[in-house]
């Protein structure tokens, strides 16, 4: 990693732990900063804080005392999930303390070039595809960021011959200063996380931060299926490369069932290893990155044809008695479920849907669920999801939880059918996160196999 003195002897407050905060605290300590960690979880229930204290890092746990900010900190590094409306963050900004996220630290120390991927949907799959293609090509695609591997941790051992492939959330991108990827991808922009950002415009502004330091030497890859992306293309200093499933563009595109890059056929859309129109978009974005990095077509073909998906994102979960299961627990909004359904013939699908009730109706989902074999509905939002099923004239049953739903879906299925967990809702009414929800689905499938 680069030896930088940006934080040396500077007082830095790390607000919030989890994986990224713990990694940031250790890195800052290594860089010579005087680190204080502040986390809301009580010390006796906080193994990360206990470990950091043993390493000589000051920890303040159990509360967020505003007077802590009287200690003349030079920087705050906050957990991405903590909103800017948080009293500690607000007070830090009032005091003129720069508020960063740990991806900024990763950029400052990384010897490896960075490919940054953001967007509303598809970013995890696209990040994984890109990482696998670059690794297969010998360019060391190291996955990091929002995908589960703290960027500031991965960057510490990344070599100049490798590539840091970073999935970036809007929350992370709000906390950057000098961060600059060589290649950036915005998969799409849809209204989501409005409860955090306040408006779609503010959400887009946060995502758009990915390119704020890019120059004409860098490349920004945008989805030409969206008029918004075309408008944004006029507002960046970076070179713009487009991808599209609807029209021929000067980058990557779908035409007559083939995926092209600048007129050169790469592979057939039907050869991609995971189903769905959204995965064609993900593959096109991947092709664009790969070709810009000089990856050979046969390498791209090998990876995309054998791509098995990402856990909880339209993940093939096996077959039981001729019934195929797909785990799409990460589909926490309507758009993601619409995209998942596009990869299947509706009359063979039993859809498991429902979850946290955020007050929205599901009318937009009605055209996509019309013709489904059946639905299994669960969670706080089940009455709203049931209304959509009724409008689509789809039969349904109710379930208590994912385990019950999986069993009931299997009971409804016949050989050749697909059971798809794609909830269109967040998981927090019943589960800590979408991973736990998806893991229960996978565990139940293993029980059915037995």
TrEMBL record:
It is found in: Cytoplasm. ATP binds at residues 119-125. It is an enzyme of class 6 (ligase). It comes from the Bacteria. Pathway: Cell wall biogenesis; peptidoglycan biosynthesis. Residues 117-290 form the Mur ligase central domain. Residues 312-424 form the Mur ligase C-terminal domain. It holds the Pfam family Mur_ligase_M. GO terms for cellular component: cytoplasm. One of its GO terms (biological process) is peptidoglycan biosynthetic process. Cell wall formation. Catalyzes the addition of glutamate to the nucleotide precursor UDP-N-acetylmuramoyl-L-alanine (UMA). Belongs to the MurCDEF family. This is UDP-N-acetylmuramoylalanine--D-glutamate ligase.
């Amino acid at each position: 990693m680069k030896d930088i003195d940006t934080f040396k002897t500077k007082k830095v407050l790390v607000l919030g732990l989890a994986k990224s905060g713990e990694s940031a605290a250790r890195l800052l300590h290594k860089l010579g900063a005087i680190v204080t960690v502040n986390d809301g979880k009580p010390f006796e229930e906080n193994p990360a804080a206990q470990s950091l204290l043993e390493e000589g890092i000051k920890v303040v746990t159990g509360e967020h005392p505003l007077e802590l900010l009287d200690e003349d900190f030079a920087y705050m590094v906050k957990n991405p999930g903590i909103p800017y409306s948080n009293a500690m963050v607000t007070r830090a900004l009032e005091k003129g303390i720069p508020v960063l996220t740990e991806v900024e630290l990763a950029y400052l120390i990384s010897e490896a070039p960075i490919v940054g991927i953001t967007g509303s949907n598809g970013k995890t799959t696209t990040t994984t595809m890109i990482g696998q293609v670059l690794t297969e090509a010998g360019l060391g695609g190291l996955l990091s960021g929002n995908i589960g591997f703290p960027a500031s941790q991965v960057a510490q051992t990344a070599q100049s011959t490798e590539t840091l492939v970073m999935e970036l959330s809007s929350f992370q991108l709000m906390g950057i200063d000098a961060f600059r990827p060589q290649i950036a991808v915005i998969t799409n922009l849809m209204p989501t996380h409005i409860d955090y950002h306040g408006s779609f415009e503010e959400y887009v502004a946060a995502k758009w931060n990915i390119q704020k330091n890019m120059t004409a030497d860098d490349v920004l890859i945008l989805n030409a299926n969206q008029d918004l992306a075309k408008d944004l293309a006029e507002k960046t200093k970076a070179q713009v490369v487009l991808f599209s499933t609807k029209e021929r563009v000067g980058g990557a595109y779908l035409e007559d069932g083939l995926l092209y890059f600048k007129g050169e056929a790469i592979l057939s859309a039907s050869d991609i290893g995971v189903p769905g129109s959204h995965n064609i978009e993900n593959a096109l974005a991947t092709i664009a990155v790969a070709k810009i990095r000089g990856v050979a077509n046969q390498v791209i073909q090998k990876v995309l044809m054998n791509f098995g998906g990402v856990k909880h994102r339209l993940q093939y979960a096996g077959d039981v008695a001729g019934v195929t299961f797909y785990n799409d627990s990460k589909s926490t909004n309507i758009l993601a479920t619409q995209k998942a359904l596009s990869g299947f013939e509706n009359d063979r699908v039993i859809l498991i849907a429902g979850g946290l009730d955020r007050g929205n109706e599901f009318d937009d989902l009605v055209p996509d669920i019309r013709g489904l074999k059946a639905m299994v509905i669960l969670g706080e939002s089940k009455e709203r999801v049931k209304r959509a099923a009724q409008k689509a004239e789809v039969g349904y049953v109710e379930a208590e939880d994912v385990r019950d739903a999986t069993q009931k879906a299997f009971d409804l299925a016949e050989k050749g059918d697909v059971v798809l967990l794609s909830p269109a809702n967040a998981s927090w009414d019943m589960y800590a996160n979408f991973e736990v929800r998806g893991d229960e689905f996978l565990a139940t499938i293993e029980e059915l196999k037995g």
